[in-house]
Design goal:
The chain is 8% helix and 36% strand. The chain is mainly β and 105 residues long.
């Protein structure tokens, strides 16, 4: 993500990623919320290439065989401007894989 604040990344399943899952650069404010990271070297990143750093706030993510979640200036990530109900990060893999793929929709 670049520039925007807030960006809400909620209930995603990331699997076998050798680089990063979610990046925030150029001052963006990203709320990384209840995602499932499996075998992801860097679940989050606050700087990529020549881009300036971004900001990340996180909550309720689930890590399996993955690196640590990196945050930066979590207080500068704006509040999410809508109500929502997500599921716990621990159950995201099962939900996503049960509904993903050809003929699943």
């Amino acid at each position: 993500m670049r520039f925007a604040n807030p960006v809400h990344v909620v209930n995603n399943y990331y699997s076998n990623i050798g680089s990063y899952g979610t990046a925030s650069t150029m001052g963006a404010g990203v709320f990384v919320d209840r995602n499932y990271y499996e075998n992801v070297r860097r679940p989050t990143s606050i700087k990529e290439g020549d881009s300036a750093e971004g900001n990340i706030r996180e909550s309720g993510n689930h890590l399996v065989g993955s690196g640590a979640i990196v945050t930066r200036n979590p207080g500068s990530v704006a509040a999410i401007p809508y109500s929502y109900s997500g599921e716990p990060g621990t159950s995201v893999k099962a939900t996503v894989t049960a509904g993903a793929g050809v003929g699943k929709l």
